[in-house]
Amino acid sequence: MATATPTRSSPASEAVRLRQTYPHFKVVVLDDDVNTFQHVVESLVKVLPGMGSERAWELAHQIDGSGAAVVWSGPQEQAELYHQQLGGAGLTMAPLERA
Hints:
alpha+beta
C-alpha cells in the first residue's frame, strides 16, 4: 500500500504567492466642467501623501487634456480611501480598477 506524502512548495513559490496577496488598484480622476484647476490641485495635494503642487498641476493638465489621469496606484484599501476622499472633495472619479 502506498502512502501519500504531503507536497511542499519551494521558498521561491511561497514568496511569489505572498507578493500576489494584495492587488493594486488605480485611482483615476476624470475631467469635468465643474472643478477648477486650483481645486483639483489643492484636493490632490491634501489627500494624496507625498503629492507636491508641481506634480498635482501636471496631473490637472493631464486630466484636462486627456480626459483622465491616474493620480495614485497601490494597495486596494488605500486606493478605496483616496478614491472616497477625492470624490468627497467634489472631483469626478472613475471606478477603481486593478492596476
